[in-house]
Amino acid sequence: MTRVHVWGASGYAAAEAVRLLHAHPAIDLGVLESASHMGERIGDHFPLLRCAPYRFDAPGSVLDAAGEGDAVITAGSEEDARRVVPALLARGVRVVDLSALYRFDPAAAYGLTEWRRSEIAQARLVANPGCYPTAALLGLLPLAGQDAPQHVVIDAKSGITGAGRSPRVGSLFAEVAGDIHAYGLTGHRHQPEIERYLHGGGMETRITFTPHVVPLARGMLVDAYAIFDRAVDAGAIEAAYARAYAATPFVRLLAGHEIPSVAAVVGTNDAELRVDVRGAVVRVICAIDNLGKGAAGQAVQNLNVMLGFPDETGLSANVAVA
Amino acid sequence: MTRVHVWGASGYAAAEAVRLLHAHPAIDLGVLESASHMGERIGDHFPLLRCAPYRFDAPGSVLDAAGEGDAVITAGSEEDARRVVPALLARGVRVVDLSALYRFDPAAAYGLTEWRRSEIAQARLVANPGCYPTAALLGLLPLAGQDAPQHVVIDAKSGITGAGRSPRVGSLFAEVAGDIHAYGLTGHRHQPEIERYLHGGGMETRITFTPHVVPLARGMLVDAYAIFDRAVDAGAIEAAYARAYAATPFVRLLAGHEIPSVAAVVGTNDAELRVDVRGAVVRVICAIDNLGKGAAGQAVQNLNVMLGFPDETGLSANVAVA
Amino acid sequence: MTRVHVWGASGYAAAEAVRLLHAHPAIDLGVLESASHMGERIGDHFPLLRCAPYRFDAPGSVLDAAGEGDAVITAGSEEDARRVVPALLARGVRVVDLSALYRFDPAAAYGLTEWRRSEIAQARLVANPGCYPTAALLGLLPLAGQDAPQHVVIDAKSGITGAGRSPRVGSLFAEVAGDIHAYGLTGHRHQPEIERYLHGGGMETRITFTPHVVPLARGMLVDAYAIFDRAVDAGAIEAAYARAYAATPFVRLLAGHEIPSVAAVVGTNDAELRVDVRGAVVRVICAIDNLGKGAAGQAVQNLNVMLGFPDETGLSANVAVA
Amino acid sequence: MTRVHVWGASGYAAAEAVRLLHAHPAIDLGVLESASHMGERIGDHFPLLRCAPYRFDAPGSVLDAAGEGDAVITAGSEEDARRVVPALLARGVRVVDLSALYRFDPAAAYGLTEWRRSEIAQARLVANPGCYPTAALLGLLPLAGQDAPQHVVIDAKSGITGAGRSPRVGSLFAEVAGDIHAYGLTGHRHQPEIERYLHGGGMETRITFTPHVVPLARGMLVDAYAIFDRAVDAGAIEAAYARAYAATPFVRLLAGHEIPSVAAVVGTNDAELRVDVRGAVVRVICAIDNLGKGAAGQAVQNLNVMLGFPDETGLSANVAVA
Predict the structure, then answer these.
(1) Does the reported pTM lie above 0.90?
(2) ipTM score of the complex?
(3) Domains and their CATH numbers in chain A
């Protein structure tokens, strides 16, 4: 059994990580550090963990407890990560960091598991991808072998847990229910992350990215439209997608009357993906749980890869509950 | 045209008051004072007021602007009211206060319009009732002429705007959607208000009050159960309800297959009421909009009474939009 | 006062038309014909019309009642329209038809009010546009004066009332809440309608159209992305939008920090529109109420134009309630 | 491994049973019979079962397949049960019936597991309780040792899956979202079931039962108020509850600041229970998942008891996912 600690355990993604690690057959859940909630039961803050036997630990607990061979999920801000991650690495601890701090840093493996498996397997530090980049890149990277499209439009819809658990007016029930709107129109921090790894994957293209808030607690749907300057070969593209995900347990390629659906992935580490080619346009639709494959699920999948467990360990209950 | 100002204009009830006063044919909307949002457009904070031509004014604006003959809706905390209301009254201004401060104060008229009309008509200061008390008292006061019940159970369900617009974790979309729970089990501040005015209405009884949060932005349903120690006379009770509300424009008595419904009252000043008598138990169900009849709607109705307008003035669009 | 009847009065759009006509100062609501609900109170089927004094009338009632000078909103299926509309026209009655039957028919004016005002003013028959086409065309037609874009992507999100009130599993609360998914991937009947009137407006381009169901009862957000083969002149495009909607009461052009929001238009006939130009891409976002500007609101606006009333008559309460 | 078949597999409770049995370590899922969906994949109808490898089987399949030692969950109507259950029992098959048919029948064990364990263990036929009775009886039966209360008020709030998956207008998203209302005011079929088993448990009392629909897909909250004619002994009552549920894995007694919450039980077989005594009134609040402990979860728990497995088998993931 490997011990895994969670640093910054009071947000939605951290709570989901606790839920997954609690049920993981090869991992012992260690210290749950939270400066703001120290001493309190995690179940008092998250109804879905009401009967879990954990309390939030005091600042410094993870550094005190983490020893050689342990791993840590750091779920704080970029500033937190800057302070804590190096100290953890210095103790010989493996780290999966949920913040954006290391996503452009060559010292970390970029944790898009299906595309970076071998780097992740050898990494001491994994930068877990953002939720939008996870869905967008899973959807677009199989296209990278083609000639670059002229333009890519990414129209993304996210549940409000993507905005975190710190209370703000815009996340209140009375604001989110009954509304849909775009945001970040002049630039969302996930856009350069998507572009960086599309380019890294070999697709040199410009993208237009529009994120939206929709009245969902969890779940994310990303529609990506690649516009080419001439008709593309549908068979070759479909084959590229089939090849890319043939051996992966969590990416489900849909076709025919099956359409990616947030309800089919909430509570899981699954991604549903569908590609339709018409003339010079390739439309890819990807559904994930922003807290699952978009955050805590992928973090646990990355831990599995780092620790030498099969990807599905502790994530195999791939029938959703919603 | 009477000028009406709104003090503390940044909460949900205040915004609803602005919406109603904006469309009121006999009232000019004056100053909208908000310390936290001064200078900003009200439509930037409330989508439903996007095209309304108002900005939040600076602290002190209402006191500066309010003159003899004007009226003010004060929509701040009890502390705010303690500071502002006496100064307003001193200028000869009529005040409807939405806080709880004056609800037990004999210097103010208690603004349950259908039951306190003549006092309200002569008052300079009206204490607008809480939302739960409004629904509970509309439902129970017609029983006051009977022998007192042995016990009254009030089981109330409220939309989350009742908790205000200050951001707190418990009001986040991700916490409210998909959940129902009771709160305030050891005592809610509305319980003494309900008891005070039941007793004042002649019903000396003990009550058990359980408020719940339900996944609604607006609207409230209150089920009240009066348990008598012997069978009661159904016909007499139904007649008492019919009599109590025969001449009122906003209270709708339902019967037969009609059942009070939040969807039927949201956006209006209406109350839907239904009484069922079976043996020794009288069940009364009341639906209101917590921001309408439970706050801003009733405030405008009280202004109408104070200013000598028919109750329905500016409130007559009694077909809901939701 | 002009008499307006509603044929096929039992769906969501028809009920919204009844709500609007009930409050219209220059229109008397006539017969509400519904084969399925004849004799029943409209308020028993639509909570928001609980206190409206109307009953559904029997089949044939509209034809019997409608006389010279009257108007009728027909809100049935295409088959219904084929049967009823010619008979109504034969009696000298003006008709606004909500079905898709006449949307490609040169005998009818296409009822996109802001773009077809003079035809509508002279028409006996107006084919009211579909909800998606209304939002998409309001967003894209100002671009028609430019060189044609290489491609247009339309990613649309609709509340479930767009699917009608006939019960089907896919519209159940337990299916819609907590989910988002695309549909009609192999062709939605609104796509040719959008293309027809883009082409008619002078924009010869190919479109990719993806509609989605989101967990909303009412409201629609349409993101349209026009991809040009070279950078476009942002100033010229913004000027074209400003010019197109300068004199219209219901289309609100947003800029700066203002973003179109479904919550800002629900319950109204408003459309919120925002254009952002970046290089060779123009992104237009449009929010409407699918039952308002996307159906009943625009139908009443068209009636106003046909009958010589100002557009806003009966629609001027343009502060939303939601 | 015991084989368990599901008869009438196309409703919400049946799908939840399939989800649970799919993951059950001691049960093999057999035939899933559905007349309406035969041949289709279960994942095409239930997103949360998208990747489950099952198809609906033809009418007659369960009777053909079920052999000695197998068990069947029958999830059809009462009429279905009348036709199918006797034939299954005649083959020596154990049956848990979800319909109301056998709930008053002495030939069946009443499947309220915590209170009928020994009968269930020996039964060939278990009548699974209704969802409202499950929550109400778990909440009230520990009181049965006391003198009977004068009256019991049960105010219940249910998610809409309780109304089934057959499409009807009242279950549409656009009707349920934004509304709360009571129903069945003149008598709900669960009321006699509650009374029957309260009386059977020794509590001879009259009850007033008011069910409500709330905007939830899953989950149920039941507030029960027992009104006694004199003050009761709080300590004795709390002790009775502690005793009743001390050895049970799924009933969680809450106290202090902990309040039963639907979000804490959705997706699980858990029940959260809280008792507050004040004077002559005992208030009990119980939260369950209507599809979990209120239907499929309890059915699997009953199968476990019938088959000699520990209660928690296949149900032990008692950390909720929502």
Answers:
(1) yes
(2) 0.96
(3) 2-129+293-307 (3.40.50.720), 131-290 (3.30.360.10)
